[in-house]
Amino acid sequence: MRKTERHIKKRNRFSIIFPILTIIGIGIFAVLTSFYEKTWSYNWNGISEQVRDSVKVAENGGISSGWVGIAPRKPKQYDRRFWIMNNATESELIKLTDYPNGTIKTIAYEGLLRKPEFKNKVDLMLKAIKDTEYSIFYRTGCEGMNMNISEYLVDLVLLIDDKGLLGKTNRYNLPQTDIDKILNEYKKVPSLWK
Fold first, then answer.
1. Three-class SS state of 29
2. Which of 110, 103, 109 is nearest to 61 (CA)?
3. Angle formed by the axes of helices 76-87 and 102-114, to 10°?
4. Other CB atoms within 10 Å distance of the CB of residue 132
5. CA-to-CA distance for 137 and 44, rounded, in angstroms?
6. SS3 assignment, position 138
7. Residues in contact with 154: Cβ distance below 8 Å, sequence separation at least 6, in sequence order
8. Interval 10-55: pLDDT, tens
9. Are 180 and 166 in contact (CB under 8 A)?
10. Model-wide pTM > 0.90
């Protein structure tokens, strides 16, 4: 069978176009994967629209103590954090502990710890201690520092660390056996801020 000139031209066009399309495809794939964020694929089922919108705004703001620094006004992130903790249901907060962002995870953990009707505080804290993939940026006054989620929760929310920061200890009246269990796991995690 003889190859005609028409068949040879078609094959030559394909052999030129295929490598170009391959390079373009690889380039598009590389660009999309380098900018991908896990929050894009987060499952929002079970979370109200108001909480979701507040989470989207709060996720890059860090955690604020509410203390005023040079600027004579309280940071909006402080009020936003408390709005999420007070208006999200227990099930929404539990779901947000799996959100791929340290700030939102911290808000969810703290919101659950502050709810008097939430009973699994020890198990929640053990989960938070093991949750080291994301850190948080904590601001107080003019200062800021990176810390683990568990450092913030143990040292600044529960106030059960051995050092007794701020002169208070055991804010939520946890039994000593629970405190010992939490601190034993907490001491195994390397600190980011001390």
1. helix
2. 103
3. 50
4. 14
5. 24
6. strand
7. 125, 129, 160, 161, 182, 183, 186
8. 566 667 788 888 889 898 888 877 777 777 778 899 999 999 999 9
9. no
10. no
